[in-house]
Design brief:
About 25% of the residues are buried. About 60% of the residues lie in helices and about 0% in strands. By secondary structure, it is an all-alpha fold. The protein is globular and about 50 Å long.
């Protein structure tokens, strides 16, 4: 049933046993992915290796791009790229460039959902990728190179 699918997908129920809205769900998922992206892009500190290095971002991107996009998918891809995109591009170079081109030219067109979330996510990700494809750079996430560390 739809309710079972939404439960497996991670939707939560409130005190009135109502499922959270798509907007709240999307914000929560993007927040969790933002934390994941921040962790994987963190460089080794004090000689200690990051236990979740950047290859986890690459693996996540590869997995999501190999699935049919859902309404939330572009939002999640942009969340990861806006935080860990620079580190992933530095680590994977031309392979990452090819992946970003494929996301822009092939994967986004597979998103057929016309919900407001899907349209907004698709549009925002397309703009993000167009800026990258024109400049060849992904702007570093604010605070990534904190000089006070």
């Amino acid at each position: 049933s739809t309710g079972d699918y939404l439960k497996v997908a991670g939707y939560k129920r409130n005190d009135y046993d109502e499922l959270e809205s798509e907007c709240i769900y999307s914000e929560r998922m993007a927040g969790m992915l933002a934390l994941f992206a921040a962790i994987v892009q963190t460089p080794d500190v004090g000689g200690q290796p990051n236990p979740f290095p950047i290859h986890h971002a690459w693996a996540w991107l590869a997995r999501i791009i190999n699935m049919a996009p859902q309404a939330i998918s572009p939002l999640l891809v942009q969340t990861l790229l806006s935080i860990a995109g620079t580190a992933t591009l530095n680590a994977y170079g031309s392979q990452m460039h090819k992946l970003l081109q494929a996301i822009y030219s092939q994967w986004l067109s597979k998103l057929t959902d016309i919900s407001p979330l899907a349209r907004a996510g698709k549009s925002n990700l397309a703009i993000f990728l167009e800026e990258y494809l024109q400049s060849g750079k992904i702007c570093e996430c604010e605070g990534r190179n904190n000089k006070n560390r």
